[in-house]
Amino acid sequence: MKALILNTGSELKKLLMKKKYLVLTVLGAIICILRIGDNVLVSKITGGEVVIKSNLIMEMVGFVFDILVPLIIFMAVTDLFASEVQEDSMKASLLRPLTRFKVMTSKSLAVLVLGCMVTLAMFVISLIVQIVSGNSLRSVPITFAAYLINMIPLIAIVSMALLINMISKSPTLAMLLCIVVYVFFKYLNYYITPVGQMVFTAYSQWHKIWIGNVLPFTALISKIGILFGSILILYTLSYIIFDSKDY
């Protein structure tokens, strides 16, 4: 376990050294500021007659968990797998005193931790903007719980990106396929029902079935089964391919 944790830290450092993840987080922060700016603009245009009070942190959930964090996850998985294979540096990872399963798991955990770090950063940024804009902070605890709950489906996003990287021959192709497959799944989620609800990407905003809406027990079980069943299948297939490859 200690070796796994140390290797995860090492892989995470690789990712944090790449400035593109910081740049994407900054872009997310700018979008957050622009979002609250719309409300301020409306107030100024109407001379203060129309004042929009909103829960900015919750409004950012869709952007954070459906767009920003998945994109960062796709890039991070590609950096640690397809890019390392192309650069012939995967061999160095496999020379460590770890099984291939632990090597793959440590890399996956590093990506997941990065995704969670960006998520928490966006929560803090949204909270600061919410405070500065003078909006109510009454719902902050519930909103924070929503952010934490929504981190769970990120495991499935990592697993999907992992499998795509296992079957792709280049980083460019891997990244492109991650985006295309994800967009296709999202299309199914929104426009093709009930088939779309059987795809794990339908539960990226996982908090909706736990906070506010009380679903029947059978419905909860089926949704949990879809999410974790998808994770198990995707991760297992990824490991089978990873273990069989000759790097």
Short description, anyone?
The protein has helices spanning about 1-15, 20-45, 55-60, 60-80, 80-85, 90-95, 100-130, 140-150, 155-165, 170-190, 215-245.
Please characterize this protein's 3D structure.
By secondary structure, this protein is mainly alpha-helical. The protein has helices at residues 2-16, 19-45, 56-59, 61-80, 82-86, 90-94, 100-132, 140-150, 154-167, 171-191, 217-244. The model is unreliable at 40-44 and 46-52 (pLDDT under 50).
Kindly state the percentage of residues in helix. over 70%
* SSE string, helices as H and strands as E: HHHHHHHHHHH
Mean pLDDT level: 87
**Head-to-tail CA distance between termini:** 25 Å
* Main sheet properties: none
Q: What is the count of β-strands?
A: 0
Q: Spans with pLDDT under 50 lasting ≥5 residues?
A: 40-44, 46-52
Q: Count of helices?
A: 11
The share of residues in extended strands comes to: under 5%
Please compute the radius of gyration using only Cα atoms: 20 Å
Tell me, briefly, the overall form. Answer: globular
User: What is the structural class?
Assistant: mainly alpha
